[in-house]
């Protein structure tokens, strides 16, 4: 959780100078970050950026070439058994057997932990109570994801890793799942969230690390990332008379100019907005349907990673 001073709580996940190569190709290159207790920390990046390699190293499923990882002070490789008691991971592609019922899966996973959570409470919160006797193979994609979240939480972990949490879910199931994640955090659990969905990251994450080609290219709050991107304010309008591009080029902090039919779309900052208004007044041009909006995390993602190249 971010405190009022903007700094996260005491670190519960610490990653320093993590490196991993496959066949001589470096896919995680000097990655460092720490995640505070109760924080929702997002890891975002284009396909192949190294996100899963990073979180699977945190889970102790991959052995880094170098670097240091600590989960609540434990080494995920050397102290693997202890780490599985504090860290819950969402099953990804390793599906459960189709014939297993929801109840059987919950009972099976409860047996892995000395002090498991009451799975009845978990399924109630996750809206799965009426599916307890359903076989895994008969659940909808959303219900399967909810079950995976329940299984990740069953050991009462301090940290939970959710990788591609809502991939394949319909918008309704996605929103329901976001509420579950917020509920998990409200109970003080630290969440590491790997996602491709900007809306999800913007809504849920306290801070986000953007990873591109194995390196962290930016690490900030969602709003901080948006402000870091060039053109964090978007100004669009239809001018009553054409505006000269050379006049536009004099605008302060202008990141880009786009003409879309008779509309002008400018990206800049608050300073650009003020300057556009005085430029229009000087030329006695009216701005029809003037809109000033903040850039989204999507815009920031494209600007701050190589995804647009
Ligand atoms: N076991 C492996 N052997 C060889 N190469 C691998 C292995 N695992 C991952 N890679 C490569 O490492 C790079 C990073 O993969 P990783 O799965 O960490 O990326 P990602 O950011 O999670 O991608 P995506 O968003 O597509 O899931 C990719 O180029 C991938 O092909």
From TrEMBL:
Q: How does it sit in the membrane?
A: Peripheral membrane protein
Q: What is the name listed in the Swiss-Prot or TrEMBL entry for this protein? A: ABC-2 type transport system ATP-binding protein
GO biological-process terms attached to the record? response to antibiotic
Task: Fetch the SUPFAM superfamilies from UniProt.
Answer: P-loop containing nucleoside triphosphate hydrolases (SSF52540)
Report the residue ranges that make up the ABC transporter domain in this protein: 13-238
- Principal place where this protein is found? membrane
Q: Where in the cell is it found?
A: Cell membrane
Q: Which SMART domains match?
A: AAA
Keywords in alphabetical order: Antibiotic resistance, ATP-binding, Cell membrane, Membrane, Nucleotide-binding, Translocase, Transport
What PROSITE patterns does the annotation carry? Answer: ABC_TRANSPORTER_1 (PS00211), ABC_TRANSPORTER_2 (PS50893)
**InterPro entries documented for this protein:** AAA+_ATPase, ABC_transporter-like_ATP-bd, ABC_transporter-like_CS, ABC_transporter_ATP-binding, P-loop_NTPase
This entry carries the following GO cellular component terms, namely:
plasma membrane
Gene Ontology terms for molecular function: ATP binding; ATP hydrolysis activity
């Amino acid at each position: 959780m971010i405190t009022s001073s903007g700094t996260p709580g005491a670190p519960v996940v610490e990653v320093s100078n993590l490196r991993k190569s496959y066949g001589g190709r470096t896919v995680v290159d000097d990655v460092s970050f720490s995640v505070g207790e109760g924080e929702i920390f997002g890891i975002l990046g284009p396909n192949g950026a190294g996100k899963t390699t990073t979180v699977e190293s945190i889970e102790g499923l991959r052995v880094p070439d170098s670097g240091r990882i600590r989960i609540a002070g434990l080494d995920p490789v050397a102290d693997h058994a202890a780490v599985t008691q504090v860290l819950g991971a969402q099953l990804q592609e390793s599906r459960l057997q189709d014939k297993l019922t929801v109840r059987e899966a919950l009972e099976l996973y409860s047996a892995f932990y000395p002090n498991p959570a009451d799975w009845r409470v978990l399924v109630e919160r996750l809206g799965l109570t009426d599916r307890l006797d359903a076989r895994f193979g008969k659940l909808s994609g959303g219900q399967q994801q909810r079950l995976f979240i329940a299984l990740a939480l069953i050991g009462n972990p301090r940290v939970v890793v959710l990788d591609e949490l809502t991939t394949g879910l319909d918008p309704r199931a996605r929103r329901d799942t976001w509420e579950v994640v917020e509920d998990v955090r409200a109970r003080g659990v630290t969440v590491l969230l790997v996602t491709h969905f900007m809306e999800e990251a913007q809504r849920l994450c306290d801070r986000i690390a953007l990873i591109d080609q194995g390196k962290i290219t930016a690490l900030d709050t969602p709003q901080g990332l948006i402000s870091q991107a060039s053109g964090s304010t978007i100004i669009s309008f239809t001018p009553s008379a054409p505006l000269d591009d050379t006049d536009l080029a004099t605008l302060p902090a202008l990141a880009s100019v786009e003409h879309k039919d008779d509309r002008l779309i400018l990206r800049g900052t608050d300073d650009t907005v003020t300057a556009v208004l005085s430029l229009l007044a000087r030329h006695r041009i009216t701005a029809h349907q003037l809109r000033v909006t903040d850039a989204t995390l999507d815009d920031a993602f494209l600007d701050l990673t190589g995804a647009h190249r």
